[in-house]
C-alpha cells in the first residue's frame, strides 16, 4: 500500500484529491498538509500544517510518516502570478525543488502538475502536440516549463520516479480556484445559480482546454499507477477532454436556465494570457502510454455542476 504525502492539500485539486486518495489507499495512508490549518482535511485522516518552502520541515514529515509518494500541488496561478512574478517564482519553484530533493533523498515517487500555461503564443494553437515549441510569456508558464525540465532532470540523473500532467483549466464545485485565467469557467456556474447573470473577464471567443475534476482525480491515480516501462514521457503529459469559449459555456448553461445572461468586463492581463495559450491539446501520448480517456464532456459536466451547486445552496 502506498504511503502518500500531499503538499498544498488545501487548494482546488488537493482538497478533492485528498478524499479521493483516502478512498483508494485508506485514510491513514494519505497525509494532507498545507501552509494553513484545514479542519476538513484533518477530519478523516492525518493533517499537518507544513510550509513547503521549509526543506527541513518537508523532509521531517516524509521521514516521520515513511512516505513513498509525494503530490506537490503548491502553486500561485497564472493571473495572480503576473501581479507578483518574483513571489510566483519563489513559491512555485521553491516548493518544487524541496519536493524533488526530498523525493531523491527518501526514494519517493513525485507527482507535480504542469499546465496548458506551459505553452505560449509560438506553440501550435490547435491540437498542440506533446513535444513542441514551449515559450510561455507568463511567469506561471515559465515556472511550469522549468518544473517539467527539473522533473526530467531528476528522473534521468537520479532515477527519481517523477510524473506529471499538463492540466487544462480545472472545473469543480468543492473548492474554488484562485487567481487563474480559466477561473471564469467555474465562477459562471455559481453566478448562474446565484444571480442568473455573469460578467466575464475573458473575451467571448477565446478557446481554452478545460477538464472536470472527476477526470483530474482519476488521471492522477492512473498516471501514478501506470507501468513505468510504458512511459516514454515523464514531464509532462498533455491531456484533453473539452475545449470551449465563454460563449459556448454560456449557451450550454442557457439550455438549462433560459434567462441566464452574460456580459463582459475584459481583464487585459487575463485576455493576453488566454490568447497566448493553446485552443486545444493533442493527448495521443497520454492515451498510448498510460491509457488516458476522458469521461466528462461539457454537457454532462454542466448538468452535474448546476445540480451540485443547487443542492448546496438550497
Ligand atoms: C490558470 O488559469 O492559471 C490555471 C491553469 C490553466 O493552469 N487554471
From TrEMBL:
GO terms for biological process: L-threonine catabolic process. InterPro entries: Epimerase_deHydtase, NAD(P)-bd_dom_sf, NAD(P)_epim/dehydratase. The lineage of its organism: Bacteria, Pseudomonadati, Bacteroidota, Bacteroidia, Bacteroidales. GO terms for molecular function: L-threonine 3-dehydrogenase activity. This is L-threonine 3-dehydrogenase. Belongs to the NAD(P)-dependent epimerase/dehydratase family.
Amino acid at each position: 500500500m502506498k504511503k502518500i504525502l500531499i503538499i498544498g492539500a488545501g487548494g482546488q485539486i488537493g482538497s478533492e484529491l485528498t478524499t479521493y486518495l483516502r478512498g483508494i489507499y485508506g485514510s491513514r495512508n494519505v497525509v494532507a498538509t498545507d501552509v494553513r490549518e484545514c479542519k476538513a482535511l484533518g477530519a478523516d485522516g492525518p493533517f499537518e500544517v507544513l510550509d513547503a518552502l521549509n526543506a527541513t520541515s518537508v523532509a521531517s514529515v516524509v521521514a516521520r510518516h515513511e512516505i513513498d509518494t509525494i503530490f506537490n500541488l503548491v502553486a500561485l496561478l497564472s493571473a495572480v502570478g503576473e501581479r507578483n512574478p518574483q513571489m510566483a517564482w519563489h513559491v512555485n519553484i521553491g516548493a518544487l525543488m524541496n519536493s524533488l530533493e526530498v523525493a531523491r533523498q527518501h526514494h519517493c515517487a513525485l507527482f507535480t502538475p504542469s499546465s496548458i500555461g506551459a505553452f505560449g503564443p509560438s506553440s501550435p494553437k490547435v491540437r498542440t502536440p506533446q513535444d513542441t515549441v514551449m515559450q510561455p510569456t507568463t511567469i506561471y508558464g515559465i515556472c511550469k516549463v522549468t518544473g517539467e525540465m527539473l522533473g526530467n532532470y531528476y528522473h534521468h540523473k537520479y532515477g527519481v520516479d517523477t510524473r506529471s500532467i499538463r492540466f487544462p483549466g480545472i472545473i469543480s464545485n468543492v473548492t474554488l480556484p484562485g487567481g487563474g485565467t480559466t477561473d471564469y469557467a467555474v465562477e459562471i456556474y455559481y453566478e448562474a445559480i446565484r444571480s442568473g447573470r455573469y460578467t466575464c473577464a475573458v473575451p467571448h471567443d477565446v478557446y481554452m482546454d478545460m477538464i472536470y475534476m472527476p477526470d483530474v482525480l482519476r488521471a492522477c491515480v492512473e498516471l501514478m499507477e501506470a507501468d513505468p516501462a510504458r512511459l516514454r514521457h515523464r514531464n509532462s503529459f498533455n491531456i484533453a477532454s473539452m475545449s470551449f469559449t465563454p460563449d459556448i459555456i454560456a449557451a450550454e448553461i442557457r439550455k438549462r436556465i433560459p434567462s441566464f445572461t452574460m456580459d463582459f468586463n475584459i481583464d487585459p492581463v487575463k485576455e493576453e494570457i488566454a490568447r497566448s495559450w493553446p485552443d486545444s491539446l493533442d493527448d495521443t501520448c497520454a492515451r498510448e502510454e498510460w491509457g488516458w480517456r476522458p469521461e466528462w464532456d461539457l454537457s454532462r459536466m454542466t448538468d452535474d455542476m448546476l445540480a451540485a451547486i443547487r443542492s448546496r445552496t438550497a
